[in-house]
Every structure is written in C-alpha cells, then in structure tokens.
Description:
The structure holds 2 protein chains of 2 kinds.
Chain A: E1 4-7, E2 12-17, E3 22-27, E4 38-40, E5 59-61, E6 66-71, E7 75-80, E8 91-94, E9 105-109, E10 114-119, E11 122-127, E12 138-141, E13 154-155, E14 160-165, E15 174-179, E16 190-192, H1 194-198, E17 202-208, E18 213-219, E19 233-239
Antiparallel strand pairs in A: 1-2, 2-3, 3-4, 5-6, 6-7, 7-8, 9-10, 10-11, 11-12, 13-14, 14-15, 15-16, 17-18, 18-19
Chain B: H1 12-26, H2 31-37, H3 58-64, H4 72-76, E1 90-91, E2 98-101, E3 107-113, E4 118-123, E5 128-133, E6 149-151, E7 161-166, E8 173-177, E9 183-187, E10 199-202, E11 207-213, E12 218-223, E13 228-233, E14 244-246, E15 256-262, E16 267-272, E17 275-276, E18 286-287, E19 291-296, E20 307-310, E21 319-324, E22 331-335, E23 340-344, E24 356-359, E25 368-374, E26 379-384, E27 389-394, E28 405-408, E29 426-428, E30 433-435
Antiparallel strand pairs in B: 3-4, 4-5, 5-6, 7-8, 8-9, 9-10, 11-12, 12-13, 13-14, 15-16, 16-19, 17-18, 19-20, 21-22, 22-23, 23-24, 25-26, 26-27, 27-28, 29-30
Amino acid sequence: xxxxxYDAPHDExxxxxxxxxxxxxxxxxxxxxxxxxxxxxxxxxQIQGTAYGANAIVTVDPVxxxxxxxxxxxxxxxxxxxxxxxxxxxxxxxxxxxxxxxQTGVSVDPVHNLLLVNGRNAMYLFDRTxxxxxxxxxxxxxxxxxxxxxxxxxxTSKGWLIAAGGDFAGGTGFVGAxxxxxxxxxxxxxxxxxxQLTGYVPYSIVLDPVHQEMMMAAAGRSNRIRPPNxxxxxxxxxxxxxxx
Amino acid sequence: MGIAGNGRxxxxxxxxxxxxxxxxxxxxxxxxQRLWLGSPxxxxxxxxxxxxxxxxxxxxxxxxAPRQEPSLLxxxxxxxxxxQDNLGTEDVTRPPARNIRDTAPTFSSVGVDAVxxxxxxxxxxxxxxxxxxxxxxxxxxxxxxxxxxxISGPTSDVQFNSCVWVDPGSGDIYTVENDTGDSIVVxxxxxxxxxEPLRKLKVTHRAQSMTIDDATGELFLxxxxxPQVAVYSKTxxxxxxxxxxxEGPKTRFSDVHGIAIDTKNxxxxxxxxxxxxxxxxxxxGHFEPPSISVYPTTADGDTAPLRVIQGAKTQLDxxxxxxxxxxxxxxxxxxxxxQSILVFRRTDRGDVVPARVVKGPRTHLSYPAGVFVDARNKxxxxxxxxxxxxxxxxxxxxxxxxxxxxxxxxxENKQSLKFGKxxxxxxxxxxxxxxxPN
Lengths: 244, 438
C-alpha cells in the first residue's frame, strides 16, 4: 500500500486498495480484520491504474467531504467522501501535460482552497474545485526549487507546502517548505536535509501541528539508495516549529 | 452532532462555519497553551447549534471580523504567507526527534538445503540472506542465533526480496526481488558478504515466489500483479524471456503470491489473495475470497485450473509461500494472517477443511509468510514475519505443537514491527497515533 489518509473530523481511515481498483473507508479505531464501512468500486468509478504502479494514492479533504484518487489516463477523480459502491466521480480533473498516474502524489489544502499535484519533480497548484481541462494556477519547478516527488505531502494552515526535494541518488534529498504563493523556479524557504542527517529519503510526509512535527516514511529505494545503517524501513519524526 | 451524511458539509458557508466552531472552541486558551498547540488544525466538524443572529456568520464575518491576535481564525484566513523567495533557504539541521525502526531482520521466506544441512532465511528489513545450520536452536534465555553467513550489499543486489530457494543439486541460491529490483539473483552456494551474483534474470515487477522442477529444468515464478506464472529455464539470465506464460481470465489468478509444484503428480499450485482487476479496464476491480488454484505443470497461456480450493472452511487468509511433500503430495501453506500453517490433501477441492492446521501459542507462529517441507528429515519449517524467527516442527504436526527448534534473529519474545516497505504514512491526531501500512 503506497497511500492512505486519516480523516480526523470524521475519525475515518481512507485506504486505496491498489490491485482491486477500490477505495476503502474504515473506522478510525479499526483493529484486526475489521471490514470497511464503505467501499468505492465498480465500472462507474473510472478507477484505473497501470500494470506497474496500479492504483496507489488516495487522499481526503475532510472539510469539504471529498476523496481524491489519481488515475490513468492522466486524471484525478473526486468522490463524495460518503460515496459507496459503484459511484460516479463528482468531478474529474484532466492532467494535461502532468501525465498523472495512480502513483501521482495529490494533496488538498481546504484552508487556501488548493489542490496540489506532485508531478515528476514539479508541484502543480490548482483551484481546489478545478475540473475538466482547468490549468494550474502555478507550478513550482526548476533547478533552484529542487522540487522532488513523494506519494504524500501536506500544506500547513499558514500556507507552507511541505514536500520533498533534492537529488536522492546524489545524496542531497531533503524535505522542504515552499510557500503556496510561490511560482516557477523558487527555492524552498526552509529545508531539512533528511538524507544527509539520516541516510533516508522520504516516500511520504505528514504533519502533526499540535506537536509541531514533521514525520516521514522512508524505505530503501533501490540498490543505489541504501541507508548506511542497513535498516531499510523507518518512520522518522523531526521537530519543525518554523513551519507551524 | 457530526455531519457525516449531511450534504451541507460540502457548501462553502458551512465549511467556514465549521472552522468558526473550531476557532471559538480554542480562543479561550492561554498563550502558553496556544504555543503548545502549535498552529491550528481541523480536528472536528460539528453542526453549529441554532444561535440565531448571535451566531458568527461566516460569509460576512470572515472578512470584517476584528483581528484577535494571535488567533486561530486569523491563521485560517487565506492570507498568503510572506513572499519567501528573497529570504533564501535556511537549512534546519536539528537531528530527528524520534525514529521508529526495527533493527532485527524480518524473515519473509525460508529455504532448506538438506544436502548441506543449512537453512536460508530471506530478510526484507535489512536486505539480506542469512544462512544458518539446520540444527541451530536458540533456547530460552540464549542470545539470537548467529548466522554462518550473511549475503548483503549493493553488489549482491539483494533488496526487498520475497523468496529464497536453494537448488538441492548445485546448492545455488536463488532469490526473488519483489519491488525495487525486479529480478531473480543467483549466488554460488558458499557466497557470503557483498557477493557478486552468478547471474541475474530480469523479471516482471511484483515477482513474488519461485520453485524449480529439476526433472525438466524449469523455474516457475509467480507474479503478483498483473497476475501470472512465468516459466523460465532454471539457467536463464539477463533479459531472457519466459518459455511460457500462464495468465488470463480463465486462470482465475488474482493477486498471486505462493507457488509450489508436485513433481511426482505434475501439479502446479498457485495461491490468490482475491484482489482482482484488469489494469487495462477502468472500474473492473472486485474482491474474491482467497484461493489456491491447481494446474498441470505443463499449463500454458490462459488455462483454467483443474480445481480450486476456496471458501470459509479453508481458513485461507493472506496465504504466502507453499511447499509440497513429495512423498504424500500434501500441500503446506504459510497462512500469514491466519497465524497458521494449513495442510491440504493432494486431491482437495472447493470449500474444504484443511487436513491439518498447525496453530496456537505453543507453535510460536507469528505472521508466517514462509514455509518449507524438508522431506529428507521429515521436518516442516516456517519463517515468521512477526517475531523474527524460523520455527521447525515434525512434518506430520497438527494443532498447537511446540517447535522442535527455533532460529531467532532477535531477542526472545520479540514482537517485530512487521514493516514490509514503509512507503505511506498517516497521523491519527485524535488518538495521537502514527499509522504505517505494510
């Protein structure tokens, strides 16, 4: 499983079932072999992945009650969070040149009404309700930005976009903070050089505003990116009060 | 009350109202408490009680409400953060506050070389193959078992490998990479350290498990998704293509994991987790109960199974590796989530009760993903993801049987984190819990 989300206001866990083209919603306190309380699955859903990546990513907008699923060919499906069964998406955003797949990172910022799409080494910022062939409001991309790619990333309520950057293979991977008002090739305001500090690069990033912490899930990436301590799976937490 | 199922939750005004309710609930905190709370976060959506005009009206009040600094409401406004480009980048180099990791190996697969009396354990946490004496036994109170050899390192190309298999004739060690390497790597029997493989075979992404039919020289490889069984020459290397490919809707393959062959009766067993979809067809996904499907070993293309073992009585629950007793034809299944080893008869079909079930607290089974029948020594081996052990039992075991011996990769009574590949993450702010999938 490469993507899931916790919906705090509704106390639910939303999970992508990657090989069954399904979105499962569980109780927040689910434990053991507990069945989901809702399943989105079926021909009307339009959920589709690839042979290689299948359907990996899902995210939730608890404020507006929506579930976002990136799919092939090149689209983001938006479902009502209460949708169940063979549901039709309420909106579909076409990816244009982004080339969205089932592994494209997607995040929603309900505070600033943004939909953020993490294409290959680029961050696309759309209006939250963008659909059809809507164009992004801004793109953060380029050598100064060093924008990278992760499965999960987030925006703070102050408008700091927390995502990954740097050259993982070159050992300079970091977690950076860009402004949601940035456009173009803009360097991050802050960055934690996580690869230099720990040997790991992030697959996913989540935030804990209460304790002012950033957490990242990290695992061995390939034979070229091996944590020096030889332990390939970890979750690392950093204190990062600057962004909160 | 919560607004689940309430269409009003999707209107903009109601959203702001929800935030206002949250803000009103936090304004009363002291500065110290606010500092500890960090920055605002949405933790609850509540229906605003009927308050008439006294209630804050978001569509108007958001823009005109007097500033209360520092206030949660101010933080929720869409005021942009300051332009940061001209400030440059500041590196935050404080060390991590916490690190959740398992320092012990996680054993995903077991293979036994009865000729050389050695046991091979595949470790998916530290990217290694660990080789032990077949008779090693970590008794209570003793330290973890020291391996005779460890194969690991960038030259070895061992990564998130899901299967280890030892050729009883040559002693060659085969290992299947499941995720980041997409290969079968073969080592010489005495390989150790960051060893150069004898050969590598590029295989399809999500390769899971393998076995070899020495009589025909064929290597059978299960691929999780798109589900298939690829049959290669056992000496294949590089970009060699399969001799034949078993795949298609008639096969009833779904999220394939374990594979085993009965060479005497020329049967191929494949287990399926039941996650079904055709990646070429949107919305084609559905779920089926897990199953074991049976084919002739000569199957090719879109071949229907001879029979299928499936149903509630089977107890199948995330079946992992499988192994056949060549003398009886009994099929042994590592039943990962079922915390058991299931044994089916050669002719079983449908919703059948297993002939035997090894399960219970005395067994020390914990999320067993690997299983191996050592026919020469009449022993049954299991590798346990959940406690960093390999356990061995009499081959005819049934019920809550204590292991004959145990190889321990960690301290006694270890509860492994069971991390498979930590690629996703969520934070449950309600319970202050970190959620990690495997």
